[in-house]
Amino acid sequence: xxALLRVFIQFREPLxxxxxxxxxxxxxxxxxxxxxxxxxxxRTKYCLNxxxxxxxxxxxxxLVGTPFPSVAANDTGETLRPFEAIYDVYRRGDKLxxxxxxxxxxxxxxxxxxxxTDLSVFFLSDRRHEISRLLIDEDFKIRPFWYEFKRxxxxxxxxxxxxxxxxxxxxxDAVANKVINDIFWQPGVQDxxxxxLQLQVDLLLQRTQLEYRAINKKAAPRDxxxxxxxxxxxxxxxxxxxxxxxxxxxxxxxxxxxxxLAPSLSFTxxxxxxxxxxxxxxxxxxxSLQWLSEENxxxxx
Length: 301
Hints:
single chain
């Protein structure tokens, strides 16, 4: 029962966002009761897991309503595909650890995008995990509905969780259970990592306006604007790739952030570098890439 309760609590806010279930997604009380009774008779762990999966997909179906296209495709046939990318993280030539970016397809238009890092310097450690659950609409615009940030390691642990109501233009702090009122909402608002996926989609579709308003992990608005600089041949542990180099545009001239994305890999991030006061803050480089919808594993030589 606790597991069932967690499922209902976790998806309560997205359901309120849409307000109702379309007729084709409704299950009559008798039919639902018969299904649950049949599963209960078996009394096995397998059936409990199956029941939870059915409930989970019912909620996803309610979120989606009318199915939207699940992927974006450009003229060359490159599409947005589920993947797991592993990166080496460096700082001024020293390796600090690894990072993993994962994109999973939950239903026809519901996705989960996450980023995990595990870094250490001498006796200091820092482990972070960010998760964004989101929808992709018919215009290939990303709409996050749930974001979570966790940090553990040396120092105090941190956790934040935000929910997004795109119908009412409301962001809620799920940990404090309160609406964040000081956020200037605008259409297309993103969370701390979903804007990165929107950048990938926009480059895939050859869009030129790369400007995003995001709500960061501290529940504060932040603008992320990018400009395309050049096409470069980039060498990383994964291999040598033709990439598009973009730069984040900020008013802080002392901090510069560059990103390299590979068109041949559906514009997956290949390298990310930040330089502050003339010194490298970090350099993230792709080591391996696995398309989760396929069996093959693409990795460095």
